[in-house]
């Protein structure tokens, strides 16, 4: 029995534009072999940097392209977070973010995530109590792991709080393009009038995970400091990958790729919701409008006990407790991006059998 994996937040091979990536690679190698095969500079492949700047309506010196958005995160944390610094995150939040911040010795405060984003009232209360975070990490669209989206009202309030209390609002936004329902909301970056937002995104979710290409957009002085860290880290990032991404974006194939991914993700989300309704009617969740993940709670079920039993039944997920400083024992993250609707249906059937066996 082949395992069905709800574990990885990545598009499956069948929805990746393999032909388009091959064409983009050929164009990159042919059009600009010098720029593609050389070391380059620490800000990234210059034409791609220019494309990103144009996309976000910013000056090119506000952009830095990295080897994946996780490296962008790590560079920003290295610049802004020192041991003992207060940092605010969502609860739950991406497990690697928690790991990185704790390794830096940050004092992490996790504020509850609601279905329309972080509890801004609780955040404001924390700030008014005297806590002075150097940074607040927010995943605004189809949050990893919960799948929730930050409302327009809360975006405006966070921008005001960042300006008032002088902290960096880190808008970590790799899922923005993969909305399959509802109306897109403007980024906080596009509404920032006080230079408090640093924005990160990635091409892994719209092109392919293996491309490992992400970027930061922010105030020019912040990006210049991050550039120094990048220079000392690797001289330059992967020029071959970034040149391919540049050709893929400029050819328009990126738009086709995003459209394909959106259609597939909506089908997979629907399959997950329908299977849960049928097999686990007591499950608690909010169906996302985009992205790769859904946060599922099973009242009265210990996920710690369920996890190994589910694995024996041929289905795997990520425990909710991995994304929290404490709690989450009845929750799990279900990634529906890398499995077909048929696999989802079978996987939830197996999961329900495992739950009943407890």
UniProtKB/TrEMBL annotation:
<protein>
    <submittedName>
        <fullName>PLP-dependent aminotransferase family protein</fullName>
    </submittedName>
</protein>
<dbReference type="InterPro" id="IPR050859">
    <property type="entry name" value="Class-I_PLP-dep_aminotransf"/>
</dbReference>
<feature type="domain" description="Aminotransferase class I/classII large">
    <location>
        <begin position="22"/>
        <end position="351"/>
    </location>
</feature>
<dbReference type="GO" id="GO:0030170">
    <property type="term" value="F:pyridoxal phosphate binding"/>
</dbReference>
<keyword id="KW-0808">Transferase</keyword>
<dbReference type="InterPro" id="IPR004839">
    <property type="entry name" value="Aminotransferase_I/II_large"/>
</dbReference>
<dbReference type="InterPro" id="IPR015422">
    <property type="entry name" value="PyrdxlP-dep_Trfase_small"/>
</dbReference>
<dbReference type="Pfam" id="PF00155">
    <property type="entry name" value="Aminotran_1_2"/>
</dbReference>
<keyword id="KW-0663">Pyridoxal phosphate</keyword>
<dbReference type="GO" id="GO:0008483">
    <property type="term" value="F:transaminase activity"/>
</dbReference>
<dbReference type="InterPro" id="IPR015424">
    <property type="entry name" value="PyrdxlP-dep_Trfase"/>
</dbReference>
<dbReference type="GO" id="GO:1901605">
    <property type="term" value="P:alpha-amino acid metabolic process"/>
</dbReference>
<dbReference type="InterPro" id="IPR015421">
    <property type="entry name" value="PyrdxlP-dep_Trfase_major"/>
</dbReference>
<keyword id="KW-0032">Aminotransferase</keyword>
């Amino acid at each position: 029995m082949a395992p069905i994996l709800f574990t990885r937040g990545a598009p499956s091979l069948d929805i990746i534009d393999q032909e388009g990536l091959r064409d983009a690679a050929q164009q990159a190698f042919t059009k600009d072999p010098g720029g593609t095969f050389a070391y380059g500079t620490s800000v990234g492949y210059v034409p791609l940097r220019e494309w990103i700047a144009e996309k976000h309506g910013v000056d090119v010196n506000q952009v830095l392209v990295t080897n994946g958005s996780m490296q962008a995160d790590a560079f920003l944390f290295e610049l802004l977070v020192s041991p003992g610094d207060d940092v605010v995150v969502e609860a739950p939040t991406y497990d690697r973010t928690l790991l990185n911040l704790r390794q830096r010795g940050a004092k992490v405060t996790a504020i509850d995530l609601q279905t329309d984003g972080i509890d801004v009232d609780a955040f404001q209360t924390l700030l008014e109590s005297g806590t002075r975070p150097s940074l607040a990490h927010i995943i605004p669209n189809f949050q990893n792991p919960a799948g929730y989206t930050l409302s327009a009202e809360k975006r405006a309030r966070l921008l005001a709080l960042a300006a008032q209390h002088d902290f960096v609002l880190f808008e970590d936004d790799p899922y923005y393009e993969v909305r399959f329902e509802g109306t897109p909301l403007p980024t906080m970056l596009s509404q920032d009038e006080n230079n408090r937002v640093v924005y990160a995104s990635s091409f892994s979710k719209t092109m392919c995970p293996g491309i490992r290409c992400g970027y930061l957009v922010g105030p020019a002085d912040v990006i210049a400091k991050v550039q120094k860290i990048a220079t000392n880290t690797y001289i330059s990032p992967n020029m071959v990958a970034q040149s391919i991404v540049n050709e893929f974006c400029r050819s328009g194939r990126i738009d086709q790729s995003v459209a394909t991914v959106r259609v597939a993700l909506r089908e997979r989300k629907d399959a997950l919701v329908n299977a849960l309704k049928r097999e686990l009617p007591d499950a608690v969740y909010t169906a996302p409008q985009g992205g790769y993940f859904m946060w599922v709670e099973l009242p009265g079920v210990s996920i710690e006990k369920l996890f190994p039993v589910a694995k024996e039944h041929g289905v795997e997920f990520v425990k909710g407790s991995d994304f929290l400083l404490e709690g989450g024992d009845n929750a799990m993250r279900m990634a529906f991006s890398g499995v077909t609707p048929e696999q989802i249906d079978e996987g939830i059937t197996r999961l329900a059998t495992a739950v009943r066996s407890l």
